[in-house]
Amino acid sequence: MTTPQRIPDRSDVRALLATCRSDTRTGIRDRAMIYLLADVGARPVEVLALFPADLRRGEAPAVRLWNVKRRSEAERDPERLPAWEQRQLELVAGWTRRSPAEALAKRERRELEIGLATADSLDAWLVERGRILGRRHGVARPVFLTTRGSRDALAELQGRDAHKTEAGAPLSPRALQAMLASRSRKAGLGWTLTARHLRRFAAVREIEGGGDVRDARRILGHRSIATTARYLDDAGLHRRAARRELLDRGI
For the whole model, what pTM was predicted? Predict the structure, then answer.
C-alpha cells in the first residue's frame, strides 16, 4: 500500500511565492515558474521546454505544453521542424534520455488557459529575459533561462578547467527541483515542496473550482483517468465523485 502524497494548501504556495523577490531577476523568474506549476500542474520538463511561441497572450492567456508522457501517432522528421522546435526537441530528448526521433514520436501537446496572476508573472519575467538576452535571438531559446553565469565549483576545487556558462542558458529539471527545495527552506515550510506536490495542488484546485475528474485529467495530461482519480484520493477530495465517474466512463 502506497503512502498518500502530501498536498500543499494555498498558504504553502503563498509562502513559497513570498520568497521570490520582485527586485531580482532570479526572484521574478522563480515566481513565474511557481505560478505556472501551481496553476496548470505542469511537469518540470513541460515547463522548461516552453518556448515563446508556446505562450498565448490577450484576453484568454494560455500555454501550450509538451505532454511528455503521452504517445503521438504522428511520425515526423526532426530536421523539417523550425529552428526553435529543433532546439526544443534537443532539450526534451536530453532530459528524457531519448533520441530526438523518439522524443518527437512521443510528442503530444495540450493547450491550457492560465490565470491572470500567472500571466502577469510570465510577462514580468519575459521583460527581464529580454534584458538578459539583449540582441541575441530569443525565439530559439526556452522561456526559462539562467539569470547569471556560473562556473563548475567542483572542477575548480579539483584543479580542472571549469567551464563558465553565460546567463541565458537553458535550465535543467534538476535545477528547477533545487530551486523549489531552496524556496521551501526559505519559506520555513519544514518540508520540501516539489513539482509533484504542485501537480496535486493544481488537481485539487480544479475540483474545488467546480471541475470534475475529467477536467483534472485534461490539465495534468494523464493517459488514464485512474491516475487522476488517485491524485484526488490522495487529497481525500471528492473521492466518491471521482470513483463514480471512473465507473461511468470505464477504464
Answer: 0.75
